[in-house]
């Protein structure tokens, strides 16, 4: 048997080398089919862009009355001039709008600082304590020269942020406690934790809010009422806690048994083991699902409308229903709400991806 | 968590909780509780065009809102001593029962079961509404009885659908309901031809028609298939507070009958008509009998005007809703508004 080939294999044609821009274009116009699809897509994009620009600017009404908007096909900018502040702050007294604005800015600044891992530490906790206290003072007033604004007049974007942020911040320690309790060896604690988590997760948020707003006051003695906002906030905290607990449980289970055994071998007791070894590792795994949860809650707060509180989406809806604007600025209103939600959710999502990279660099 | 942070948080929670507990208001003494608080709390719609809606400054305006301002004027002499609490269909009665609000002025229909099973009392009807139907003119339909087999756009909940079913069953006709979750969807579905007709209260039909690009393309059919007397609601068992609310509404109606308006109420103080004198507190002690200032009705008219003015300001033909008075005219003009005599 001959192992060596006698004649040469015929030479293949050398691949054609395209210049760089031709290489780039190849997938789009390489075959007639691709070329056709490309042309169609470009045409569709062009039409869309033209329509959007036309709607936003060319056909739009920039100044004028609702009637002018009704007659035009374009966007209605006077709607924003007239209702923007209401959409952002709801029924908060008009002359005091600087207070929610200041609270929001303060809150954003604190978020910005917290986003940088270099600042993580105890000092940040103190900072947050101060920021939340100042925000509460700005919003509620009543002391140090600010007029009192009852929580029933809070609304709009500050309310959305407050309900979701305080909701999750409050739910976090509770969630960790629940997750630890669920993994506990003591049956009573474990059963209570499982019962709470499964009960809350098995019920929609809207029904919990409804219970907090409708049922709770009927059990209160003699006409005494707890602030509606507080009720809604507590309901959201309890609801979020059940979800946080499951995320934490997932995080705990992802830590190899060896870590538990090693820390036990070092003589650490349960709380030391959790605080020093297990939770710090678990929290890193939990961050992406927690951010997802937060984005979800940021949008779910709209359900507080059932309790008579108006968060951002609800104030936008309210603004669209003023008689003179009714049926005129529907698209504008919803688009505005979508843009604002998309803006904040995108930031949160991007930050979540950044954190994933950050932790991967540190550990792999 | 550091001790300082904890303290700050605790202080915050304590502050919020303190602010949260409002003074207990027992059923008997709403007036005292309101006076002690220095303002009234009035439950209104979250947003309902013409009846309760925020203006550009976020201040509540509208017909239902003005009724509350009138009561505030009767109690405090000023129409501004009232906070508005947006309530929704599901929580409105509970908010009243639990004492969160002192009066519910929220397009609420008085019905037998509501009056007798909820621990609530209704004031006099402030707006007589009724469910109607609207169709596109090009369909050429003149009566709701011609709508056999039609698709009808409705909002869920309350009694709209029930009334429709009753009407069509009585007339031995069929219809198909198309239910939408919110007003905007409902309206757009009708305009885009998704349904043959749209059915809701006549006041809403008028506002939906006003929004159409060409209102003349739509007609409201003549049938009114339900009675919807909208009235303010108070807690049961406090007849003094109910009297204040009822007679404030009657004062608005009487003022229109007697030709007293926001602008001429000053001159009417020197009117020779004994009923005008009694109403405005020039003679008699009518305010004292109610437990409020003798010039209560003067204050009411001074702050919101008479019934006609309240109507025209929020719902009337010069507003985007463009409602006609219809049954909401004084009985002297063939309407249903009839205030008992002030004597």
From TrEMBL, chain A:
GO terms for biological process: amino acid transport. The chain crosses the membrane at residues 35-62, 100-119, 126-149, 161-181, 188-210, 230-248, 333-351. It comes from the Bacteria. Residues 157-347 form the ABC transmembrane type-1 domain. InterPro entries: AA_ABC_transptr_permease_3TM (IPR010065), ArtM/GltK/GlnP/TcyL/YhdX-like (IPR043429), MetI-like (IPR000515), MetI-like_sf (IPR035906). GO terms for cellular component: ATP-binding cassette (ABC) transporter complex. Its main location: membrane. Keywords: Cell membrane, Membrane, Transmembrane, Transmembrane helix, Transport. Pfam families: BPD_transp_1. It is a multi-pass membrane protein. Belongs to the binding-protein-dependent transport system permease family. HisMQ subfamily. NCBIfam families: HEQRo_perm_3TM. This is General L-amino acid transport system permease protein. It comes from Microvirga flocculans.
From TrEMBL, chain B:
SMART domains: PBPb. Keywords: Signal, Transport. Residues 1-27 form the signal peptide. InterPro entries: Bact_solute-bind_prot3, Solute-binding_3/MltF_N. GO terms for biological process: amino acid transport. Residues 39-268 form the Solute-binding protein family 3/N-terminal domain. The keyword Signal applies. PANTHER family: AMINO ACID ABC TRANSPORTER PERMEASE, AMINO-ACID ABC TRANSPORTER-BINDING PROTEIN YHDW-RELATED. Belongs to the bacterial solute-binding protein 3 family. This is General L-amino acid transport system substrate-binding protein. It comes from Microvirga flocculans. The lineage of its organism: Bacteria, Pseudomonadati, Pseudomonadota, Alphaproteobacteria, Hyphomicrobiales.
